[in-house]
Design a protein that fits this description.
elongated, single chain, 3 helices, mainly alpha
């Protein structure tokens, strides 16, 4: 079960990083300093958000994923 949560944590971090790289340039003015500051703030908060989603039940609350319903090669 711990391996599943870690995999969910990594995939959530990758998805949130990709989302940040797409969304931030559209909502921040083209000033390079402002973009660097916002990217740094967003990229520093992503691991905490991914941890909450994967390990603290955030994905289950959102109805996106549950480790009990996932079947893997470890179970068989």
């Amino acid at each position: 079960m711990n391996r599943r949560r870690f995999r969910a944590f990594l995939l959530t971090m990758l998805a949130l990083d990709a989302l940040a790289l797409v969304v931030v340039p559209f909502v921040i003015p083209p000033d390079p300093t402002a973009r660097m500051m916002v990217f740094a703030a967003v990229l520093l908060t992503i691991p905490a958000l991914a941890f909450w989603l994967a390990y603290r039940g955030g994905l289950e609350r959102l109805g996106v994923w549950s480790p009990e319903t996932e079947k893997s090669a470890d179970d068989e």
